[in-house]
TrEMBL record:
Mg(2+) binds at residue 103. The active site is at 127 (proton acceptor). Belongs to the phosphofructokinase type A (PFKA) family. ATP-dependent PFK group I subfamily. Prokaryotic clade 'B1' sub-subfamily. One of its GO terms (molecular function) is metal ion binding. Gene3D superfamilies: 3.40.50.450, Phosphofructokinase domain. This is ATP-dependent 6-phosphofructokinase. Its main location: cytoplasm.
Length: 319
């Protein structure tokens, strides 16, 4: 292995820059050449790459987003498109590619590996929905952002004896919602992993009001319902003013917290170690604070994230 490419793909996440920096600095220290690819698989297909030196990643460890840019590029599912991407990498003499992204991006990395081009995947997403790792890069930063937003909602909900619904990102994974609910002291939490009905939710809220609760904060994962419509329903059923707040892309921005910077730096350097040891088709994770790697195909097809039922139980006990 002499030349490595690195790209960021899918939804961006705070700490992606720190991961790129980790790959670049660790690679250069081992005498490798590094190439950055713009805008994920789109830039790979369009042959938009630049050589990276150690100063290319100066002053990025503290910056949110990704300086290489990211993109959704559904055409990458076509083999002919991936073939052109591989030709572009071969033309420049690249031997391997590090892909920083979520499980969609892992699919692309898996396909490239199957076509004979070794890839290493690093989990970069705020959703924490990637198998084979306790935490993804960006998750802890997003968690801090969500908790800060919930704290602010609590102040005003409490003053006005209002019910607040806060919609949190995570797609089909409730980790961000659940952890934010515990840290933010939310009264109710609705997650994709646990079926709920709005009738049950209203019954719980009513029981809380009966106990004398002045306000209620409901944390709910995105994609489960229309929160504005849910707010109207709850207001009608309880007679209490109810407002929905969709946090949206605010959750994806901001400077990465120290945890994410450290995780990203470790993972970036570890990806280089794996490539030097001759590994390809692996994805990097952190489990029990140790760097681990799994087969990328196995991670996508067979491994499942365990649901944190223990955290759910804690949240429920502290309602
Ligand atoms: P994330 O990586 O955050 O989960 P996406 O699911 O949008 O984000 O995936 C990012 C990109 O990965 C897609 O736009 C596409 O270019 C590529 N990708 C996703 N699924 C596949 C697939 N089955 N085969 C090849 N490439 C894929």
């Amino acid at each position: 292995i002499k030349k490595i490419g690195v790209l960021t793909s899918g939804g961006d996440a705070p700490g992606m820059n720190a991961a790129i920096r980790g790959v670049v600095r660790a690679g250069l220290a081992e005498g490798l050449e590094l190439f950055g690819i713009y805008d994920g698989y789109l830039g790979l297909y369009e042959d938009r790459m630049l050589s990276l030196d150690r100063y290319s990643v100066s002053d990025v460890i503290n910056r949110g987003g990704t300086f290489l840019g990211s993109a959704r590029f559904p055409e990458f599912k076509e083999e002919s498109v991936r073939q052109i991407a591989i030709e572009n990498m071969r033309k420049r003499g690249l031997d391997a590619l590090v892909v920083i992204g979520g499980d969609g991006s892992y699919m692309g990395a898996k396909r490239l590996t199957e076509m004979g081009f070794p890839c290493i995947g690093l989990p970069g997403t705020i959703d924490n929905d990637v198998a084979g790792t306790d935490y993804t890069i960006g998750y802890q930063t997003a968690l801090e952002t969500v908790v800060e937003a919930i704290d602010r909602l609590r102040d005003t909900s409490s003053s006005h004896q209002r019910i607040s619904i806060v919609e949190v990102m995570g797609r089909h994974c409730g980790d961000l919602t659940l952890s934010a609910a515990i840290a933010g002291g939310c009264e109710y939490v609705v997650l994709p992993e646990i079926p709920y009905t709005r009738e049950e939710l209203v019954a719980e809220i009513r029981a809380g009001l009966k106990k004398g609760k002045k306000h209620a904060i409901v944390a709910i994962t995105e994609l489960l319902c229309d929160c504005a419509e849910l707010a109207k329903y709850i207001e009608k059923e309880t007679g209490r003013e109810t407002r929905a707040t969709v946090l949206g892309h605010i959750q994806r921005g901001g400077a990465p917290c120290a945890f994410d910077r450290i995780l990203a730096s470790r993972m970036g350097a570890y990806a280089v170690d794996l490539l030097l040891q001759g590994f390809g088709g692996r994805c990097v994770g952190v489990q029990n604070d140790r760097m681990v790697h799994h087969d990328i195909i196995d991670a996508i097809e067979n491994m499942r994230r365990p649901f944190r039922g223990d955290l759910m139980a804690t949240a429920k006990r502290l309602y």
